[in-house]
Amino acid sequence: MNELAQQKSVYLKQHANNPIYWKAYSQKILDQATAADKLIVFSIGYAACHWCHVMEHESFENQDVAALMNQHFISVKIDREEHPDIDAAYMKAVQLMTQRGGWPLNVVTLPDGRPIWGGTYFRTEEWTQSLEQLAKLYQNQPAVIFEYAEKLEHALLSIQNPLEIKPLFEFPSQPENQKEFFAQLLEKWSSNFDHEWGGMDRAPKFPMPSNYKLLLEVGNQFNLNTYSNFALYTLKRMALGGIYDAVAGGFSRYSVDHRWHVPHFEKMLYDNAQLLSLCAETAKQFNDSFLKRIAKQTTLFLEENLKSESGLYFAALDADSLNASGTAAEGAFYTWTKDELQAVLGESYDFFSKVFHVDELGYWEDEQYVLFRTDDDLSLAHKLNFHESAFAEKLENSLGLLKTARKKRSDPVTDTKKISSWNAQLLSAYCKAATAFGDEEYLQRATDLAFALEKNSLTGNRVFRVDTQEINGCLEDYAFAIEAFLDYYQLTANENFLRKAIDLCQTVLREFDHKNGIFFKYQASATRESLVHIETEDNVINASNSVHCRNLFRLGIICSNNDFLERANKMLEAITVRIDYPGAYANWLSILLANYNQQRAVIVSNPNFAAKLEILENIAADVQIIYASTHFELPQTTGKYSDEVKLYSCSVAGCDLPVTSINELPKDWFFAANQR
User: Fold this and answer.
1) What are the Spermatogenesis-associated protein 20-like TRX domain coordinates in residue numbering (predicted)?
2) Quick check: pTM over 0.85?
């Protein structure tokens, strides 16, 4: 029978009425499959996945497909956002077998979990033919399948260790060598830039926030404005494109075309958290009011659509919803026909249609238009003969009418999982926005989320994957939680969150350490060594190892812990010398750029220091803020607490004499764009 009805995952519940005898993932599955001597079908997806819904409707609701799967296989449904470790392990196998990946991810394995076949979306006929052949082969020629499984396992083991990749460079350990190193890497990378629409010159286009953060940092640090300007241009193109929801804020997961026009309509918490942070930091660097507005609107989207009663934030909104005919359709909530726009906007339609290309440029399919701009407010105001303030008012009123009208539509399904690592990324984003804008509202949002995360996602020194505390956290959850707690500590001087970050770091060292002694494994345990995942490539979400490498640098400086600093340096050097494509290692390169080995810190003698936001707004990325305290003393803060606020600038060479004003700190400790 189908066992998914009692599961908490929205994605698993979506499959609870399938005629397939789905089971939820557990370690017992392998024992059951071994006892039954059956192959296992692992079908992996997530609630907001459009093609997951398509395959369900075509195949998993089909009685003939169900009869085949129920007779010959143990069928397991997995929510990839609950079990990213299982997803990552089998994705690696499918990519090795097929040279492609994605979701839904469907893998057939031996009873012991070793993969033997897989792919992504399959049409019904292809799916049934493949399963029939595998079932017949396993029954009649099992030795053939076992031989293939063994070969695939050896192949997976051979690509598991990043250290097997031959080094391409010498490690640029000294800052004076880094400008040339970055110039060479980025010159090669820039040949892939799309200078017309921003982003990389390909489709589909993903936002990739860490790529553009790196370009901003390189441009700022080395005065290479070409790169920082390209990052600014790309971010603005995204915000003007259909990938951004002009009506209610928030970014979709990616664009299917090169213009950022037609999105894959699901909205994910992790995308919006990172893009909020990027918009805030870019707005600060360029004093850009448009991106500040986008950051504020994205925050409003998060508050209105994804915030739960517990204070944590839900995972996603689905791409599909019911259209006017009552049929589930991709983008139905977000797209408009001309008739619909004319009915809602009335006399403002002509103005609006010029702003958002309700013409052949903005047309999608089936008489539907995706709202899409090519010009910014100032350009359009001039073009349409409006004063800028009058243009902004008319645009805001028009979008308000559409937002009201859209509330009458069927809402996309909300995936109500509250994922620890994604909430931690939002906590970091709120901290960044608070410092970028000097905004007390963001400080309060950060405080609310920090305490909600600590209360609901942690028990002692353990992080759980979701707030139900039934699934152990992966390295991703620990790494982002540590990063967020450090960000919050620096913003507020709340030492309890520094303590928590230190404790969680010790858990990572104890439970996630890989035998190579350099990197950390993605999951604390795995059923087989070949399914161990070491995540080192930065993707839309940064690699958990790169995030934790930065954590070790920061905690090493704050706690004067040379073991942390040594481990971080080993990780950074092992990756840096093997980088061939910067886009896959952007966060690693950002860490290299920060030059943490200078061990720079500003020690504040009193945690009641009133100018926390002011100092964080301008301080360089590698400089840690450490607060002296009467009841939580660190090696560097010993003897430095005082009622009078004093600021000590410290580095690997020691601490300078204290000063009493931010303006007296070393000039080169501040962002180049904001040197005091």
Assistant:
1) 2-156
2) yes
